């Protein structure tokens, strides 16, 4: 809900990464936070099936939006569209979650047969 405005009734969880995935932010990208410098993140990734509608996505659901835009994209996103320091995390998450797509019997797709992916156009 916080990042994309979707409520539980808008999605179905297909799977999640088993372990935390981590990345470090290069020093020239980092910004200060209340503890000093922001260094990176550890994340659990979830693969969700959108059961709602495209118009249910609301990137302005919080007072501090996380994303500038979203689009439908193929599951195996081209890595050159991902900021370099996050690419290993994307590869790991997509590889680990791919087998859940085969288990998803509804196989409900967009008109172009694509799977949804949020694109982080970081501020």
From TrEMBL:
Cross-referenced Gene3D superfamilies: Nucleoside Triphosphate Pyrophosphohydrolase
SUPFAM superfamilies: Nudix (SSF55811)
GO molecular function: catalytic activity
Domain Nudix hydrolase: 1-95
Protein name as it appears in the record: Nudix hydrolase domain-containing protein
Native source species: Sulfuriferula nivalis
